[in-house]
Amino acid sequence: MRVEGHKRLIRKMRQLTPEIRRDVAKAIDKSLQEGASTARVLVPEASGALAETISYEMHPSGLSGKITAGEKTGDGQQKALTVEGGRRPDARAGAMAAQPYMSIARKALARKHKNRVARAVRKAAKRVSNSG
Amino acid sequence: MAEYDVASETQAGIRAALLADADFAALDLAIYDEPPQDEPAPFVRFGRIEARRDDTDGFLGWIVALGLEAHSRPKAGRIEAQQICGKIAAALHRQPGLVTVTGFAVIEVEAGPITATRAVDGATYTGTVAVSVRLDAL
Questions:
Q1: What is the domain partition of chain A in residue ranges?
Q2: ipTM of the complex as predicted
Q3: C-alpha–C-alpha distance, residues B18 and B15, integer Å
Q4: At what angle do helices B77-92 and B3-20 cross, to 10 degrees?
Q5: Hey, is the C-beta of B94 within 8 angstroms of any chain A C-beta?
Q6: Cα angle: A31, vertex B127, A44; to 5 degrees
Q7: A65-92 per-position pLDDT tens digit
Q8: Do A40 and B117 touch (CB under 8 A)?
Q9: Do B130 and A38 touch (CB under 8 A)?
């Protein structure tokens, strides 16, 4: 039995990885932008400037990223967490109801993001297989 | 068109679409950019609005994300805020044909997620619907 075209197939497979990485990175960037934007819209206005601190950053690999909230200080992080999860009363302050913004944005984005990445992979694979 | 113009035009389009929706109009609620002081609830108010560019190879596009807040009456509870948010979402979600934004084709409108939390006064609730509008310049 003779298999023809295997060299071309190997060449295509090699091309595929960077193509997929590039497209998946774009999809992740889009999801991060969307997630940060939704969280900023949902965060209660009464929490002051918290919305302004919600941002995202891509990992240098381009294949992951994170959305963060709160100033990069202990107090800032505590405030962001308190708005999200609420607070029980203690000696320093009274109770505060949870006003989730991050978890809701994440849940809303989860399926959309999964589909977006799957679409990016399919698109890259199709493009490579159709190219010369 | 500048960022703030796109945001303002989208805000106007969303407001008009909501007022034209029979189910939402039946609630007889005012929609404010900034409600007058001591305005009695329930009412709807525009929250945060942000516009970002979303250009593709062939189109100059924008994505406008905005929050619509439903303010409930004291003691009406979370239910009232959620019901208003539900009507807003039902009127807008996947209804790009019902929203008109001057200078743009409205490609998609997504309404949701919804959140409702107790307001700082401890008596009323504020529900928020996150709305995302994708636009292409005409």
A1: 27-131
A2: 0.88
A3: 5
A4: 100
A5: no
A6: 65
A7: 999 999 988 889 999 999 999 888 877 7
A8: no
A9: yes
